[in-house]
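User: Last request for today: this protein with 2-phosphoglycolic acid, please.
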Amino acid sequence: MSPLWIGTSWKMTKTLAEGRVWAEGLRDHLASEHGGQAPSGVQPFVIPSFTATTAVRGVLGEDSPVLLGVQNAHWEDEGAWTGEVSVPQARDAGAQVVEIGHSERREHFGETVKTTRLKVAAALRHGLTPLLCIGESAEVKDAGGSSAFILEQAAGALEGLSAEELARVVIAYEPIWAIGEKGRPATVEELVEPFAALGEQYSGRVMGLLYGGSVNLDNAAELLGIEHVAGLFVGRTAWKLEGYLELLRIAEAHAAS
Ligand code: PGA
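Assistant: Here's the final one, the structure of the complex with 2-phosphoglycolic acid:
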């Protein structure tokens, strides 16, 4: 079985000092509890702010089993794009993963299906793993359109990829109504159908299908039990290192079961 991807985006939180403390704690935990390896059956990943990328890489070290990501990257390699960061720059700073299309970027920063497609291609072109986020609003869900909506978002972003390229993509399903302070945790029943739809289309063809949105220490195990869920993408619960370490333990136990 492929490892369960368990990771966090810090979104726009943490100073450099706070980020270093979190990363040092994770590094030291893996060293003392897992001989410097990832927990068995688990692929940890962390996605700090751009400003903390090199610092976190420095703390984790070059050979860390923890994958490091950025929360966004531009589709062009370089040029006159004030305020943007390119995939080669992200790679240069130590990143291996590029988060693409998070709903907060779609809502506030003009991310579209077209830009997600360009960004997926850019990440693949430079050997980084695209972590494509998809998810529907409460209105779409209430109208019964969740599965069709997320399949369309995914298909639009992944259009034209070869089987080999698709196999390097990770998809995170993150319903907007379940994300963040204003969200509410999804029930297992609500997620079965969207994951069945995603699984039918992408299971065995992409590197992994993750769930994200109000994941916490009480629901993580049951979320991992949903068919086709191969990992968790977590915000608030993992911002405190203790929460993240507990999620790693839950995932390791799940992988062993
Ligand atoms: P949350 O964030 O876990 O704080 O709900 C999830 C996400 O946006 O990925």
